[in-house]
Amino acid sequence: MLEALRHELTAPKTTLGKRYAALLIVTIVASIFYLFIVDEYPASFPLGSTQLLVVEWIILAVFSVDFFLRLGVTRLSDWRAVALLACDGLAIIPSLWVVLNHFGFIDLANLEILALLRLFRLMRVVKLLRMSNVLTDVFGASVLTLVFGTMAVHLGLRVLVQEVSSLSGFDVLSLFDKDTLMIAVTAVGSIFGIGLAITFGIVKRKQIEISELHRTALDSLQSFERDINQHGVGSDQGDSIDFDGWRRSLQAFLFEAYPYEPMKRKTNELLASIRAATKNRPSLDVPFHNGLVQNMSAFLSKTQIEFHPAFYLWLNRIAHIYFLLMMIAAPGLTGVVAQLLVIYVFKGLVVVIDDMDHAVDLEVTLFNSKILRV
Questions:
Q1: Distance (Å, rounded) from C-alpha 161 to C-alpha 136?
Q2: Is residue 331 in some structural domain?
Q3: Which of 167, 189, 282, 329 is the most buried (most CB within 10 A)?
Q4: For the segment 22-69, what is each residue's pLDDT rounded down to a tens digit?
């Protein structure tokens, strides 16, 4: 029972488990955004108000239930799970204090204590990142779910800066000259956008080539198979050629269930068998060498050509630097909306390019090459 509950909390498979995970994710994001609103517009949720109590009650109820569920299934020997559970517990404290203060159990006359406690709420960003692996399972694979974690991190970072400024009484962002910073925002954004557009064109062309090579190679193979089986070309050797076995291996290869090296060896064995069956037909030499062999080799090789991982590491670092520049240059609620939009566009394009570049992988199958049925 406990093992099944632990599995549903970490990797939900049932409808109820997915709905619970969706509720938790939505509540986490809403609580972080709520904290930003409270800091940016203090008059909207004053201490002791009804609207503050209602929101804090909802947050406290959802996260308390989740905390006790995880407390019941967490192994004490798993130090990482215990540490994350401690973060969950600390994140509940601010809401608990607000509710207890409303009913007169404690006194929060010193608002600096409340501001300090609010920092614990940012630990929910850690919780959200921990659940990022189930986002696609719960909400489905999309660009939004793939960049959701990045949006939450930068929103949490913006709230952290606000809280530090509130505690210290000094506006941290005032250290930067926003007019001068806008020069960097414009320059980096333009170059980054142009670079992403060029890279997108490269990977899209590669996708089209893989689709074309796959169909051309399979059509060439089918033509040779027909000649061998129907017209008696090399009938002695042709009977032993396992065309269907190779196709099954190819299907497994396209779904990452068969590695490239054995697929390449099996293809070479198939080509050698076809060559042995057609060696007495000089008219098939050119179609074999310049058609079938070339298309097979080009198709398999093209599926393995990808940008170096360091390139994607560089893209992601540039993206995060640009998002930080946006946070500094664009304060307030309008700045949040602009920053989240920029993250969705730029980080989303990085995700799309990465997915398209890995043309036949199964990690994310949003924009894989179009592989027609054999």
A1: 30
A2: yes
A3: 329
A4: 888 888 888 888 888 888 888 888 877 888 888 889 988 998 998 888
